[in-house]
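hey so u asked for the seq, here:
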Amino acid sequence: MNPTFADAPHGLLPAPETLAAGARAWAAPLLKGAGDDARALYLYGSALRGDFDPKRSDVNLLLVVRALGIERLEALAAASAKLPKPALESARTRYRPLILPEMQLLDSADVFPMDLLDLARRRALLWGADVLAGIAIERADLRRHCEYELRTKLVGLRQAYLQSGGGPAPSQELTVRAAAGAATLYRHLLTLAGESDEGTPEALARAVGAAYRVDGAALAAPFIARGENTTPEDATLKRRFADFLAGLDALVNAVDGLSGR
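ran it, structure tokens below
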């Protein structure tokens, strides 16, 4: 496999017409607050994937600035205070802006490889220069980050189960809760394995299972549980949670085993 993922130039996508104009208008105060330090305004995240849901999904924006000293930070804070707050946007598009200095962003590829790889592969430039065109993600950094996220999720689930006292109800609650962030992690695990990262969350889980030779059905448990209209029997809830933990444990070992390759 290639040691780097350096396809950033090909990740620059056209902005969806249904979102671009509104995003530019919403972010105009931020661009004004950034002044001469403004470098680029990007649209990224689910807005550029097939799973974007206008009723549930946020519109993620990234504003890149040359520097973010205290004076510029104050100006951007004043601009942010004038933006519509999420609590007031329940019936409208919800924007989530992230503001980062250019060099800090570019120097973070080894620390936040999953986040930067998302930007490298799927981003739409709404304004300015494509400052991310030359970014490259090291495969070793992506592997390490994936393993960290997997171990964190596994440890957190075990601790939460212990603190709950155990039983079918916590098993169900924790299984459903584990769906948060799992699809994103599975996509990066598929990228690490050189596989396609497209598909529904359940399909991604099963693809990860096939790629790493672990139980894909167990990895899909959070998405299955989240979509159920009725609650299964207690024995099923406990067995499903146990299988999910075992699947995560096996996946941790599989990803750890890639460290020397």
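The chain is about 50% helix and 10% strand. Confidence is low (pLDDT under 50) at residues 87-91.
lmk if thats what u needed
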